[in-house]
Amino acid sequence: MQRDPLRSAVEALRADFPDKSRSWIKRALLRLGDVKEVREELYVVEGRRELGDWRPLYQVWWSSAEGRWLCTCYYTQFGLRRRRDICTHVAAVMLFRRYKRALERVEKTPVYVAEAVVECRGRISANGEVYVKPAVEKVDLTFFASPRFRVLVVSRSRRIAVKCGGYVVYEAEGEEVPLAVAKFLIAKFHEGKD
Ligand SMILES: [Zn+2]
Q1: Hey, which residues does 134 pair with through a beta bridge?
Q2: How many A from CA of 57 to the centre of ligand 1?
């Protein structure tokens, strides 16, 4: 089963900074939605009053000279103390980057897809996510006489089986594609284009 990307990101951050408290991680999580990537090694983090911020925006950037992330909050009156530590703006950026990488890994994870037309009067199911629509342009009496459906299945297993009312009516080897491609195929399936 695929790991939840946010959970992987939090665990990666925790593993990289084992001496950091739970509240440090929690504050990074609370800030995750406030992070915007300006470019590869420059970020802005919106300030949050409830987290003790008094500026609307903080900049976080990678300093190759110091070999660490720096934040504009290190350059304030109380910044020196913060600077010796890692502020949670920087923590949020590090979490953001790990989350983004985890998401990209998920997008690249291969899944299997198969498309078929099946005739079915019962419930259509499959060993994966199943998308169903009538196989005809117009649903009329002919359709009700023999209801045929176009079925798209996205599965973690190569062998895909489509069932109608609990009985296998279609079986095939799925095509291996990245998850991102499967999502694209699902969108197209809903649009009704081939
Ligand atoms: Zn900061």
Answers
A1: 149
A2: 10
Q: What are 130's strand-pairing partners?
A: 153
Tell me, in angstroms, the distance from the centre of ligand 1 to residue 105's CA: 28
pLDDT digits (tens, 9 = 90+) for 11-57: 999 999 999 999 999 999 999 999 999 999 999 999 999 999 999 99
**Residue extents of the structural domains in the chain:** 5-107, 109-191
Q: Is 139 helix (H, G, I), strand (E, B) or coil?
A: coil
Measured in angstroms, how far is the CA atom of residue 93 from the centroid of ligand 1? 10
Residues within 5 Å of ion ligand 1, judged at the Cβ atom: 71, 73, 87, 89
Q: What angle do CA 188, 189, 193 make, to 5 degrees?
A: 65
User: What are 89-139's pLDDT values in tens digits?
Assistant: 999 999 999 999 999 988 888 999 999 999 999 999 999 999 999 998 888
61 C-alpha to center of ligand 1: Å?
10
| 148 to 5, 32, 51, 95, 134: CA distances (angstroms) | 38, 46, 57, 48, 6
How far, in Å, from the CA of 5 to the mean position of ligand 1?
A: 25
Distance 95 CA to ligand 1 centre (A): 14
Nearest to 90 by CA among 115, 77, 72: 72
